[in-house]
Amino acid sequence: MSDAESETEEVPQKKSKLPLIIGLVLMLALGGGGFFAVYSGMVLGQGGEEHAEDEVHVEALPDIAFVPISPMVVSLGTEQSGRYLHFTAQLEVAKAYEPDMLLILPRVLDVLNGYLRAVEVRELEDPTALVRLRAQMLRRVQMVAGDGRVRDLLVTEFVIN
Q1: What's the rounded Cα separation, in Å, for the pair 105 and 98?
Q2: Section 45-50 average pLDDT
Q3: pLDDT at 6 over 80
């Protein structure tokens, strides 16, 4: 009976992996082709290179200049605390007003230094405080410089240590 059972039990044949390999190759080829079609603009694109040249319109940069403010180190709190604010900024001005701003830069430094010393330490440590502080400093600088001379104050360094 053991011989009869072994004859009736057939050894299962291994399935071929060829369809799986062909499927993977076709999947990669179609995926790569689809990527190329979208990337090159054939599908979901602008329609061709001739339109891309017509659409490129670059506006001239505004007539501005940036006046750097000397780095400032402001002591925070009591003198025993040993904490300092390292502050650096630039003023965005119209090119015509750049010499004027260089002339009154010591006054700007004085106003910013006085304001930053008056601000409480807990307010400086607030992550959202920089937006408010920047607006306050810009307003003070605009008051010193006169209306229309300073367009913006760009804070480039604001480190408390």
Answers
A1: 10
A2: 56
A3: no
Q: How confident is the model at residue 10 (pLDDT cuts 50, 70, 90)?
A: low
Q: In the prediction, which pLDDT does 121 show?
A: 87
Residue 149 main-chain phi, psi, to 5 deg: -85, -45
The CATH-assigned architecture of domain 64-160 is 2-Layer Sandwich (3.30)
- Alpha-carbon distance 72 to 137, whole Å? 14
Domain boundaries in the chain?
16-55, 64-160
- Report the distance separating Cα 119 and Cα 12, nearest Å: 83
Beta bridge partners of 122: none
Residues ≥6 apart with Cβ < 8 Å to 118? none
Task: Please enumerate in sequence order all residues whose Cβ is within 8 A of that of 31, keeping only pairs 6 or more positions apart, or say none.
Answer: none
Q: Which of 104, 106, 115 is nearest to 140 (CA)?
A: 115
**pLDDT computed for residue 52 by the predictor:** 52
- Residue written as tokens 């405080």? 129
The alpha carbon of residue 33 and the mean position of all alpha carbons in its chain are separated, in whole angstroms, by 33
**What Å distances lie between residue 26 and 17, 21, 38, 58, CA to CA?**
14, 9, 18, 43
Share of the chain above pLDDT 90, in %: 53
